[in-house]
């Protein structure tokens, strides 16, 4: 039995393809490349699902034939990754050779390079996705055969409706055992001018670093907002890569960055991105980074781009945590802080909401004075100790916040519970700010859900992270013999969603 028979389940009839493409009608043509023209149409797949797909029709005049056709089938049947194009089937009838792929509605990356509406953040995410695919193909874990693409370029990076990148066109690729650091010696280098590794062109010596060079060119295209080659009347007149590298070496990135991107790029992100892209273009294989290293740096560049000043405050807070917390990204730090941490010797509790706003609570042990209170413990408290006692003569709360988010409206709550809370959850505390004469009465009490109550006092807009407060409390006489437990005073941003 022919080894190709294992792919019989992927075969699609030429009749069905002609029907889907209206006999390869010009209105169905959506592009073309080194393999031949590409068409769009609807097809019923072997699973029974009807889907919009892309048909790539081999045209031998473009230089590819049966070898490249079967290579793409075998490789994409074996390699599965979210950032690789998905092969859905193929047709081989008479002289026809057609590959059927998932249809990616946004087309190829090269169409968007000069479009300033494609943000730097979007570009970084696309580069990260491509790097993940190439890392998978190069297989740093040495668990499968290594794949060398040999034709990485922006025209071979396709984008779906969500801008997810998919590496395509594997007709020129080479396979090799994963444990070989250098793969092939080939007499004639192949690839696309501008993207092809000059060392490979000169020597015929191919290795995974050749793909790294090509990807480095794509990274510069993404940053500079233009293709690496200039054409006139269909003829190549200039390759921009050498100039790009010189500008990068001389720290003159402003001379080459896409003008529409300059104002939106975080400088740290640009430095990280350009440095790893520049290493990709090194003449020395030893200096060129691995795809795994490139991926790591691009992820850092993306994180730096998404960094905002509020994250700096989160980093400062994390350094004070008890116990110390560790994290590898701002996203992980945000996740850890969203659960709340103790700082200030365990006397202050801080958390962050989904909008990055700080929520701060100060322990009653630290800020409550007056009254008949003693240090005590209580179930489900955020602090190791609370204040307990009877409120014969009222009490005072004084202190200063440390981490409030500026220009945010905060609501101030007294957090407490009492012995008879099961009978009546609302306690009408009488309170006033130190600067005021008349007392107000708290009218709303919220159940925190863990046995503690939150009596709403007042609201204010923060203008800085530290806010001095002083509040005096009195109780109606009917509560004079009630045992109270005070956990603390809480400053909760209005945007906070429990």
From TrEMBL:
Q: State the protein's name.
A: Protein kinase domain-containing protein
Annotated signal sequence range: none
Sorted alphabetically, the Gene Ontology cellular component annotations on this record are: plasma membrane
Q: Keyword check for Iron, yes or no.
A: no
Keywords in alphabetical order: ATP-binding, Kinase, Nucleotide-binding, Serine/threonine-protein kinase, Transferase
Q: Where is the Protein kinase domain?
A: 24-302
The GO terms this record gives for MF are: ATP binding; protein kinase activity; protein serine/threonine kinase activity; transmembrane receptor protein tyrosine kinase activity
Could you name the domain of life of the organism this protein comes from? Answer: Eukaryota
Native species of this protein? Lactuca sativa (Garden lettuce)
UniProt keyword Kinase present = yes
């Amino acid at each position: 039995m022919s080894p190709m028979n294992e792919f019989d389940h992927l075969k699609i009839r030429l009749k069905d393809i002609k029907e889907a493409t209206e006999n390869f009608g010009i209105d169905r043509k959506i592009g073309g490349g080194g393999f031949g023209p590409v068409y769009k149409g609807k097809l019923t797949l072997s699973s029974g699902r009807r889907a919009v797909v892309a048909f790539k029709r081999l045209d031998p005049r473009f230089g590819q034939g049966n070898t490249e056709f079967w290579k793409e089938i075998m490789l994409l049947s074996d390699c599965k990754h979210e950032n690789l194009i998905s092969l859905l089937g193929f047709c081989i009838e008479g002289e026809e050779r057609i590959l059927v792929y998932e249809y990616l509605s946004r087309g190829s990356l090269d169409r968007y390079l000069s479009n300033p509406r494609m943000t730097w953040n979007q570009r970084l995410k696309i580069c990260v996705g491509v790097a993940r695919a190439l890392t998978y193909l190069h297989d740093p874990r040495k668990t499968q055969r290594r794949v060398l693409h040999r034709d990485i370029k922006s025209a071979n990076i396709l984008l779906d409706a969500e801008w997810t990148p998919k590496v395509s066109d594997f007709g020129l690729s080479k396979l090799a055992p994963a444990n070989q650091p250098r793969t092939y010696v080939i007499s004639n280098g192949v690839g696309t001018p501008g993207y092809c590794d000059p060392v490979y062109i000169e020597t015929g010596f191919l290795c995974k670093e050749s793909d790294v060079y090509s990807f480095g060119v794509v990274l510069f295209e993404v940053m500079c907002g233009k293709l690496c080659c200039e054409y006139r009347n269909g003829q190549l007149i200039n390759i921009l890569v050498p100039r790009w590298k010189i500008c990068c070496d001389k720290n003159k990135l402003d001379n080459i960055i896409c003008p529409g991107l300059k104002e939106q790029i975080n400088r740290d992100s640009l430095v990280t991105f350009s440095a790893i892209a520049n290493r990709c273009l090194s003449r020395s294989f030893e200096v060129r980074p691995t795809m795994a290293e490139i991926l790591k740096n691009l992820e850092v560049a993306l994180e730096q781009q998404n960094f905002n000043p509020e994250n700096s405050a989160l980093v400062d807070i994390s350094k004070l945590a008890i116990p110390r917390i560790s994290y590898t990204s701002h996203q992980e730090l945000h996740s850890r802080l969203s659960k709340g941490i103790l700082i200030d010797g365990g006397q202050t509790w801080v958390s962050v909401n989904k909008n990055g706003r700080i929520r701060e609570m100060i322990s009653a042990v630290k800020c409550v004075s007056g009254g008949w209170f003693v240090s005590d413990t209580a179930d489900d408290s955020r602090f190791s100790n609370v204040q307990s006692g009877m409120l014969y003569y009222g009490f005072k709360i004084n202190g200063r916040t440390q981490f409030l988010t500026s220009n945010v409206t905060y609501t101030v709550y007294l957090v407490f519970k009492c012995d008879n809370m099961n009978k009546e959850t609302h306690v009408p505390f009488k309170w006033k700010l130190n600067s005021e004469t008349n007392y107000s009465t708290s009218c709303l009490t919220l159940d925190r859900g863990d046995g503690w109550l939150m009596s709403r006092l007042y609201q204010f807009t923060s203008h800085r992270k530290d806010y001095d407060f002083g509040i005096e409390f009195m109780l109606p006489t009917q509560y004079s013999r009630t045992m109270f437990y005070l956990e603390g005073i809480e400053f909760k941003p209005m945007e906070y969603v429990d």
